[in-house]
Amino acid sequence: MAARKKNKEINLLPQEQFAASTTGRVLAWVLSTFRMIVILTEMIVIIAFLSRFWLDIKSNDLTDEVDNEREIVESYSDFEAVFRNTQKRLGVFAQFTTSPLHSDTIKNYITPYLPSDILLKSISISRGEIDIQGSSFTEQSIAQFISNLNSTSKLTEINLTQISSKQESPFIDFSISSKIKKEENI
User: Fold this and answer.
1) Domain spanning 101-180: which CATH class is it, in words?
2) The dihedral of CA 10, 15, 20, 22: what is its sign?
3) Pairing with 170, which of 32, 65, 110, 184 sits 20 to 30 Å away (CA)?
4) DSSP assignment, residue 80?
5) Judging by beta carbons within 10 Å of its beta carbon (0-12, 13-18, 19+), is residue 134 exposed, middle or buried?
6) What kind and span of H or E run contains 26?
């Protein structure tokens, strides 16, 4: 007779006696609790995985929106530069027109004393001081111009601050500074 093999089942958690004991109940509770923890963890992972797609879409939408706004701001940058430059010029113009030093009056203070061979390059006025830059063919004309300015009662402290000449140019460049008398209203 052939021997029949019996399959023996091994049950580490016997149901009858062990389930009724305290250790069995604690072990059953721990296993069911860990099973629930694993199920909840898997649900959280699945939700995080699915929400990643939604967050990627939202991130791309926000990036596109920021890029569009950046292009709009950059399109206005040229206008902004022109606008600021215009504001600065208007500020200088307003300062010049509201200042008591008007160009016609300065022209009347300086040009009558100007020798014929002197060319003025610039006249700058700030806080009661006048700086004159110009060119002349001779030093005598510069000396005559300074002497003429000294003869006026409207300017004081007339100083020749710079004089220079270049070999390639027949002109002598000069710079004169002076102050306007306080009692004079220019």
Assistant:
1) alpha beta
2) positive
3) 110
4) H
5) buried
6) helix 22-75
**Residue-wise burial string across 62-72, b where 16 or more C-beta atoms lie within 10 A, e elsewhere:** eeeeeeeeeee
For residue 105, what pLDDT is reported? 59
Tell me if the pTM is above 0.85.
no
4 secondary structure, DSSP code: P
Tokens of 16: 């009858």
SS (H, E, C) 109-167: HHHHHCCCCEEEEEEEEECCEEEEEEEECCHHHHHHHHHHHHHCCCEEEEEEEEEEECC
Containing 94, the helix (H) or strand (E) segment is helix 77-98
Task: State the Cα–Cα distance between residues 164 and 178, nearest whole angstrom.
Answer: 19
Tell me the one-letter amino acid at 147: S
Of 106, 113, 180, 110, nearest to 141 (Cα)?
Answer: 113
Furthest-apart CA pair in the chain: how many Å?
A: 151
Q: Which two tokens stand for residue 115?
A: 């020798």
DSSP track, 163-179? EEE-TT-S-EEEEEEEE
Question: What is the distance between the alpha carbons of residues 149 and 177, in angstroms, rounded to a whole number?
Answer: 11
